[in-house]
Write a structure and sequence with these properties.
Number of domains: 2
Shape: globular
Strand order of the largest sheet: 5-3-1-6-7-8-9
CATH architecture of the largest domain: 3-Layer(aba) Sandwich
CATH topology of the largest domain: Rossmann fold
Amino acid sequence: MSGETLNPTAPPRIASRLPRLPKSLLYSISARIGGWGLDTDAFETLRSSYRGGFLGKAIAYDNRQNEIPASKIQSLRWHPVRLLSSLDRPYYYGAKKKYLDWIASRQLGTGQYDLLHSWSGDCLESLRVAQGKGIPSILEIPTWHRDFAERVAPRAEPRRSGERTPIGRWKNELILRSERSIEEYDLATLLLVLSERAAETFRESGMAKEKLFYLPRGVDVQRFKPGARPPIFRAVFSGALIERKGIHHLLEAWHRLNLKDAELWLLGSIHEEAKPHLKKFWRDNIRTIGFARDVEKYLSQATIHIFPSQLEGSAKVTYEAAACGLPQVVTRESGDVVRDGIEGIIVPSGDVAAIAGAIEHLYQNPKIVSEMSTAARERAVENFTWDHFRERLLRAYEMAMQML
């Protein structure tokens, strides 16, 4: 796989050593620039091109930051597709993405840009234009190859409208089908994958390894940092409470253990699918906190972090927990932040007994927790700052420019 193998002692490569970077980048994303979650990723991505002097334009649905001039960002906050917000979610969701793609493809057609960077599902028409004009393109993949992701967490295909009218046919055209993502994979010059497991799904689908670039995420190590450890054993889960993230497996494992002087904090929105599991495996030492933007406040008060996800690109919370010095119980599907036995324990996806065993091991061995805590913080600081992320991204840009 293109990109790099993580080396905890290797400093980021200096941007000035890169022999060829684009002159004018067009970036498009159906999210905001600046904020939290994916919006933060978008902002940090644009920082690399803006500071490098080659950001042509970014197209997004809002702009919530002040560092990059507004003249460089075309905000679609008041886009006409908002008039369709009364449509069912699959139609409105598809309309937003296709409108963004239409705007970006028209911009790309002007000939002002020599590199396109966009996201899976956001850019089919833009990629067609890029290929036709010989413009290299980068496609960022948030999770796995679509076919493999569907096997793990199937999503019901939106039903086609039964209206035998022009309006019904138009609504059906708005729905995003899996074929769209597959064609994007083929059209893009370079695919950005967030973890080794994600890369595997593309290689197993027949994608050439030379077309894959490994780009782990970053974390603000000043915002996320170790705090005072609690007087009791406190485990925290941070993320949407959904089965894809393994919340049902965690709850069952915690229920089996029945640990004394211990508590489990669940930080994230409670989805309907989690409620039966909460009811079945509830214990009085479980605390549901709900969604919180100040995630660091809770991570810094924990002993360990547990994230037994079944499908991720590279979960941002694993970076945040590592920066807070938390040993983690994770699956390989969660990403590559944790090395087994060093910063935490890696368990097989869906293995409740293994999750329970890992939690119990850390519960009974505070010395190991302390050692892993130190290693986790070092891992984040030495490998996963946003500076590291931007340096790696510049290498991806260089590679894409050389591939056409």
